[in-house]
Amino acid sequence: MANLPPNLSLGGASFVGGPAPPSPSAASSGQPPKDRKIASAEQLVLDLCDAELRENALLDLSKKRDIFQDLAPLLWHSYGTIAILLQEIVSIYPALSPPTLSPGASNRVCNALALLQCVASHPDTRILFLNAHIPLYLYPFLNTTSKTRPFEYLRLTSLGVIGALVKVDDTEVISFLLQTEIIPLCLRTMEMGSELSKTVATFIVQKILLDDVGLRHICASAERFFAVGSVLGNMVASLADQPSTRLLKHIIRCYLRLSDNQRACGALCGCLPEMLKDGTFNNCLRDDPATRRWLT
């Protein structure tokens, strides 16, 4: 707040106007640090309503979201804020096909997605977020195939929102996601994304499998099981050339959870990749005793 001109302060009546002298320093304002943070967050959320201030507000809020306590309820309950974030998302749909997304446009929408991740993470707003079906707005980004950096960044940030939903074990979240196309979309990313986006997508599939409802869903038909199994197998084969302990850990945990289902366990006897059994990854897992136990 210290560097904002008076016409942008919370007490100001307008968001418009020319430059003005700086406001008094935070130290001399008499506000406790917590109150200053709240005031700063509130002002930035208000700035989202001004098209000229929105881009900087998105950037500042996304950078500072971890230091603003209860930013998620503020975003959710502030008039028009979620609609503005969704407007930022849908505005770049035309750039998805044909793929013409610029780095600047990608960065801007990813800042909006980071704020939605904040909402998805908060216990007071998570279910409200689901009930509004907001994850569906992200699925077009996961359905892209361009491997350029703007698209990869967009995929990764979108996966981060879904990852925030599944990070907390909640059957209601899993049940919602299973009614959507999240598993095919994650499998697509697991096949063609960067190592980091593959890791987040595999983590999401792992968390779905760890829920009893998710495990039953994936093992309910041979088609679903083999769709997941074939992608996991292809990933294991690719890791033989370019090992990634972090990614391998999630893959092995998926296999271990699949073995908890009787039918899937029998099928794994015939389709578990040989490289998981012949010591190919011994060096990769040398410093990860937990994953070695899972594999055993």
Rg over CA atoms, rounded to whole Å, is: 22 Å
Largest sheet, in brief, is: none
| Separation, N- and C-terminal Cα atoms | 55 Å
**Computed structural class:** mainly alpha
Mean pLDDT: 88
Tell me what portion of residues adopts beta-strand conformation.
under 5%
The total count of helices amounts to 17
Query: Total strand count, please?
Result: 0
> How much helix is in the residues?
55-70%
Considering the chains and any ligands shown, give keywords for the structure.
mainly alpha; 296 residues; 64% helix; disordered N terminus
Can you walk through the features of this model?
The protein contains 17 helices and no strands. It is an all-alpha fold. Helix 3 packs across helix 6, helix 4 (71-77) crosses helix 6 and helix 9 packs parallel to helix 12 (195-210). Residues 1-29 have low confidence and may be disordered.
Summarize, please.
This protein is mostly helical. It has helices at 26-29, 33-47, 51-64, 71-77, 81-90, 103-121, 126-131, 139-142, 149-167, 171-178, 182-192, 195-210, 212-219, 222-239, 245-258, 262-271, 289-295. The N and C termini lie far apart (55 Å).
